[in-house]
UniProtKB/TrEMBL annotation:
<keyword id="KW-0325">Glycoprotein</keyword>
<keyword id="KW-0732">Signal</keyword>
<dbReference type="Pfam" id="PF00933">
    <property type="entry name" value="Glyco_hydro_3"/>
</dbReference>
<dbReference type="InterPro" id="IPR001764">
    <property type="entry name" value="Glyco_hydro_3_N"/>
</dbReference>
<feature type="signal peptide">
    <location>
        <begin position="1"/>
        <end position="17"/>
    </location>
</feature>
<dbReference type="InterPro" id="IPR050288">
    <property type="entry name" value="Cellulose_deg_GH3"/>
</dbReference>
<dbReference type="GO" id="GO:0030245">
    <property type="term" value="P:cellulose catabolic process"/>
</dbReference>
<keyword id="KW-0136">Cellulose degradation</keyword>
<keyword id="KW-0378">Hydrolase</keyword>
<dbReference type="InterPro" id="IPR026891">
    <property type="entry name" value="Fn3-like"/>
</dbReference>
<dbReference type="InterPro" id="IPR036962">
    <property type="entry name" value="Glyco_hydro_3_N_sf"/>
</dbReference>
<dbReference type="GO" id="GO:0008422">
    <property type="term" value="F:beta-glucosidase activity"/>
</dbReference>
<keyword id="KW-0964">Secreted</keyword>
<dbReference type="GO" id="GO:0005576">
    <property type="term" value="C:extracellular region"/>
</dbReference>
<dbReference type="InterPro" id="IPR013783">
    <property type="entry name" value="Ig-like_fold"/>
</dbReference>
<keyword id="KW-0119">Carbohydrate metabolism</keyword>
<feature type="domain" description="Fibronectin type III-like">
    <location>
        <begin position="652"/>
        <end position="722"/>
    </location>
</feature>
Length: 733
């Protein structure tokens, strides 16, 4: 049976087993919902013994329950055995759930409706299989190092974009009654030595870059945070008073709880007093080294950890549980249920709309009705990766849909490019020939004479506990794997209509490919998960115009990034100049800049209009989740008219970049502070509206320890990428 048959069977099974998803009222925003949840939690905690509280904050141990994290139930208050399960793109170790697109693909769509729907479906599936806490979304790694193994789990290398994606995803997951978990907190930017290295970050960079998307998470009332494996300024994250108590709980007013990353706790007392609220999984991976449980009991009895601190831990955990309504009729854990419903439609839409068209010479795409297509590369066909044949996706020997590690899930089915192309081509009577390996031997015979040759190349990365083809989580280099450059050269030598499709966890250097005569198109297909083949067919044949934009910079040379994996402590010398900010600040020309992406149509920009009531000065409002309340107020509105001037329907991601006045410390020429995606018919004009909040106009003033709107002239740049600015204006503050 082919993959299409399997997909149909899965669809039939879905129709029989509709998930039981009771409608949960959308939570009220801000502090009122927390106040109510805290009242319930305090009343419950008052009825608990010390042992009950210890049970609530301590995992029962690795592999001792149905989920990757479990705590003991407290029957007297109806509190269940809590199930915490990976991860950011679906339910790990489940068999009937959807393999959603990775965060990076969702971000590449820049489409908040799709991102929110992805989150709702993630939440609905987690709820239906009884998962209380879904361990995602991810804003750390932010992806400052292009080689970073886990960058693909997050939402690209800009804090504003990541922050919007965090907020949309968290609110959507929690709207289904599931607790989300913002992770990995914080500055966990590489896999290499992640459990011993220290990220030494200055205060301003911490606030303006790395803490920024986590502030969005707190503002969205996220139930939980996960402290990361690394050290910050020499102190482990889960033992850090500065990042847990001061930054997160005091400054950001976070009212949920902080759990450890798995085995990231190092002491009994230090972690408790620095703000960690729950230890996971409760033991190390051999089932030993219990740091809380009886140890915490002793520490409380001896006064090293106060009873008030233990009460605070339990209260935070219970409040989060009440906040999302899990005290009423929550399903039992069953990771075997088929709960996919129609969710694959979101996977296909995100996979497709996250595809970025990088080159399209002579409009070779979309394909018309070719008489013969040659398909080349192991990335075009099912390998062990897509057949769930490698533990946690730790292999790269076929079509690629996601990276590897704890952030991966089983595919319920997988549509490979070759199968989807063949299916689509059969409608036109197009012949499709295949060279399914990355070996150049014999490839020229296959591609010669074909109207187009489509080469699939890949680059993979993942979590550091698995090494794949010598890559220890982080990538060793930024080249395509399996000699992808040579494969493309061999194909293009024999076929002057070569189309290169890249499936990759992050940037690769494309110079060799772009300089190869005959390479007419380059399609950056990212990580499309289970709908890999369908998404690429949608774009290749133009049933949808490409509308994704890069969420990281593609450089001409690896050195141009100015950063790489650090073999020791990382002093974050680049400061706030991460990704495009680095290239812009240092006048380094990228190959494809952040925010770039072509379409099958064109868009014109006109009619910039700006209204502002912004005032200079610090944010001084009362602290709500996310920081001072006034930081989140809209202080300026910018609109622009976008017109589809081409011949086909398409969607444009209009982006707003802000330049702060020189009275603020240097932050690079432009920072992303708004985006809108408009779907437009040929000739149609739409209005892009950007709302700027006070935080969007602020810098972190290290001396005052406040966010401050500087006085002077702010430049507003609206355009199609970070370097393709079409309209400019200004605000005087
Ligand atoms: C880390 O150290 C730097 C340099 O002293 C300081 O600016 C920053 O605030 C520290 N960060 C934390 C989280 O303590
Ligand atoms: C978009 O406009 C440019 C410049 O006018 C032109 O070269 C290109 O072919 C157009 N693309 C499409 C898809 O219409």
């Amino acid at each position: 049976m082919g993959i299409f048959g399997l997909a149909l069977l899965a669809a039939a099974a879905i129709a029989r087993a509709a998930p039981n998803c009771p409608v949960v009222p959308r939570q009220a925003s801000g502090t009122a919902a927390w106040d109510t949840a805290y009242a319930s939690a305090r009343a419950a905690v008052a009825r608990l013994s010390q042992q009950d509280k210890i049970n609530i904050v301590t995992g029962i141990g690795w592999e001792r329950g149905p989920c990757v994290g479990n705590t003991a139930p407290v029957n007297s208050i109806g509190y269940p055995q809590l199930c915490l399960q990976d991860g950011p793109l679906g339910i790990r170790f489940a068999t009937g759930t959807t393999a959603f697109t990775p965060g990076v693909q969702a971000a590449s769509t820049w489409d908040v409706d799709l991102i929110r729907q992805r989150g709702e479906y993630l939440g609905a599936e987690a709820r239906a299989v009884g998962v209380h806490v879904l361990l995602g979304p991810v804003a750390g790694a932010l992806g400052k190092i292009p080689h970073g193994g886990r960058n693909w789990e997050g939402f690209g290398s800009d804090p504003y974009l990541a922050g919007i994606c965090m907020a949309e995803t968290i609110e959507a997951i929690q709207s289904q009654g599931v607790q989300a978990c913002a992770k990995h907190y914080i500055v966990n930017e590489q896999e290499w030595m992640r459990e011993t290295m220290s990220s030494n970050v200055d205060d301003r960079t911490m606030h303006e870059i790395y803490l920024w998307p986590f502030a969005d998470a707190a503002h969205s009332n996220v139930a939980s945070f996960m402290c990361s494996y690394n050290k910050i300024n020499g102190t482990w994250a889960c033992e850090s008073d500065s990042v847990q108590n001061k930054l997160l709980k005091q400054e950001l007013g976070f009212r949920g709880y902080i759990m450890s990353d798995w085995n990231a706790q190092h002491t009994t007392v230090g972690s408790a007093n620095s703000g960690m609220d729950m230890t996971m999984p409760g033991t190390d991976f051999s089932g030993g080294n219990v740091l809380w449980g009886p140890q915490l009991n002793n520490a409380v009895n001896s006064g090293q950890v106060s009873r008030a601190r233990l009460d605070d831990m339990a209260t935070r955990i219970l409040a989060a549980w009440y906040l999302v309504g899990q005290d009423k009729g929550y399903p039992q854990v069953n990771l075997r249920l088929n709960v996919q419903g129609n969710h694959k439609e979101n996977v296909r839409a995100v996979a497709r709309d996250g595809i970025v068209l990088l080159r399209n010479e002579g409009n070779i795409l979309p394909l018309g009705r070719p008489s013969r297509i040659a398909v080349v590369g192991s990335g075009a066909v099912i390998g062990r990766h897509a057949q769930n044949g490698c533990q946690d996706k730790g292999c790269n020997d076929g079509a690629l849909g996601m990276g590897w590690g704890s952030g991966s899930v089983n595919y319920p089915y997988f549509v490979a490019p070759y199968d989807a192309i063949r299916e689509r081509a059969s409608r036109d009577g197009t012949q499709v020939s295949l060279h399914s390996s990355d070996n150049t031997n014999g490839v020229q015979n296959v591609v010669q004479g074909a109207d187009v040759a489509i080469v699939f190349i890949t680059a993979d990365s993942g979590e550091g506990y698995i090494t794949v083809e010598g890559h220890p989580g982080d990538r060793n280099h930024l080249d395509p794997w399996h000699n992808g450059n040579q494969l493309v050269q061999a194909v293009a030598a024999a076929n002057k209509n070569t189309i290169v499709v890249v499936h990759s966890t992050g940037p690769i250097i494309l110079e060799t490919i772009l300089n190869t005569p005959g390479v007419r198109a380059v399609v950056w297909a990212g990580l499309p998960s289970q709908e890999n083949g369908n998404a690429i067919v949608d774009i290749l044949y133009g049933s949808t115009s490409p509308s994704g934009k890069l969420v990281y910079t593609i450089a001409k040379r690896p050195e141009d990034y100015g950063v790489s994996i650090v073999r020791g402590d990382d002093n974050f010398r680049e400061g706030v100049f991460v990704d495009y900010r680095w290239f812009d600040q240092n006048n380094i020309e990228p190959r494809f800049e952040f925010g770039f992406g072509l379409s099958y149509t064109n868009f014109s920009y006109s009619g910039l209009s700006i209204t502002s009531n912004a005032r200079a000065g610090p944010a001084t409002g009362p602290t709500i989740p996310g920081g001072p309340a006034d930081l989140w107020e809209t202080v300026a509105t910018v609109t622009a008219q976008i017109t589809n001037t081409g011949g086909v329907a398409g969607a444009e991601v209009a982006q707003l970049y802000l330049t702060l006045p020189p009275t603020a410390p240097p932050a690079g020429p432009r920072q992303l502070r708004g985006f809108t995606k408009l779907k437009l018919q040929p000739g149609q004009t739409g209005t892009a509206t950007f709302k700027l909040r006070k935080r969007d106009l602020s810098y972190w003033d290290v001396g005052r320890q406040q966010w401050v709107v500087p006085s002077g002239r702010f430049t507003i740049s609206v355009g199609a990428s970070s370097r393709d600015i079409r309209l400019t204006g200004s605000i005087d503050v």
